[in-house]
Structures are given as C-alpha cells and as structure tokens.
Write a structure and sequence with these properties.
Elements lengths: L9 H5 L14 H12 L6 H10 L2 H13 L6 H28 L1
C-alpha cells in the first residue's frame, strides 16, 4: 500500500476546519456589540447586562460611555466606570427632554 492511499485520521481531517462555537449563540448585531463591549471592559460576568443595554439604549450613548472608559487610563473597574457614565448620560438625556417639553409648552 502506498503512502498516498493510506487512510487519514478523522481528527486530522477535522482539524482543517475552523470551529466557530465561540459565537454560536449570537444571532443579532446588538448581541455581538454587547459581547465585544464586555470583552473590552474585561467584564464577561455581566455580559447579559450589556446585552440589555445594547438592545434598549441608543448606540450613541453607549459609544460615548465606551470612549470615556477607553480614555480613562487608571480605571480600577472599567465595567463600573462604564455604568457610571451610562447613568450620567441618561440623566443628561432626561434633562434635555424635560427642557424640550417645557419650552414646547411655553
């Protein structure tokens, strides 16, 4: 029997194909964004929280908070700093909304 006709091991054949089981549960864009955010913030234990935020909050606010954390060099907890900034941005947004409504009523 020549070397070319020798059967190959199944594990050798399967190793040629890349397995993508890391993102097998991600089916929507906001889920991928939230997962990437959790990785960037080194906070995978709270990835479900980031998923909810990515689904319900405007992307501009999340990006602003992400950039804020990225610029903070000495942050002990990037996830905590991110959530603080998200809260601040929500407060600002509500204040702007109230101002718009009050000026509309005048």
């Amino acid at each position: 029997m020549s070397l070319q006709n020798k059967p190959k091991k199944l594990s050798d054949l399967l190793s040629k194909y890349k397995q993508e089981d890391e993102n097998k549960r991600i089916s929507r864009e906001f889920q991928q964004y939230a997962y990437d955010l959790a990785v960037e913030l080194n906070d995978l234990s709270h990835k479900s929280l980031y998923m909810r935020l990515a689904k319900t909050m405007p992307r501009e606010q999340l990006e602003a908070a992400r950039r804020f954390v990225k610029d903070a060099q000495n942050a002990k907890s990037k996830g905590r700093l991110f959530m603080w900034k998200v809260g601040e941005l929500k407060k600002k947004s509500k204040e702007k909304e109230k101002l718009a409504l009050s000026s509309e009523n005048d």
